[in-house]
Amino acid sequence: MVNAIKYVIKVTIGIWTIWHSKKIGDELFWVYLVLRTIDTIYSLCWDYENCWGLFHCWEPGKWGLKKRMRFHPNYYYVSVLYNLFARTWWILGIFKIKHHRMVKDLEVLAFLGIWIEVIRRTNWIILRVEHEHLNNIEKFR
Description:
Blueprint: H1 2-19, H2 29-51, H3 73-87, H4 91-94, H5 106-135
């Protein structure tokens, strides 16, 4: 049930963006911004805690990670930062980036966003499968 909250928020945002503008001058822009921020924070916490099993170990060398790991601790730290970056990529869509040399077209942003999401989801599934392998083998939830 708690996981359903994440999807209800995402569907609400999807419906919202169909009927309302995402421009800063829009009177209902702040509702959109609050919904997206709640969605981002909730999804990040869900990924780290429930999907990857992080924040269960506070030993030196594994600070904020988990007791049993298959990868080097730095991989998890980089994954946490990349997941944060990828989940907040939507912020660039709010602001107009007309004067930046590299980003002259929204198609470039969309293309980069697609690849950022592909890499995020690939990394997510690696850590998700690793978490299930270490903590749920033969328990079948």
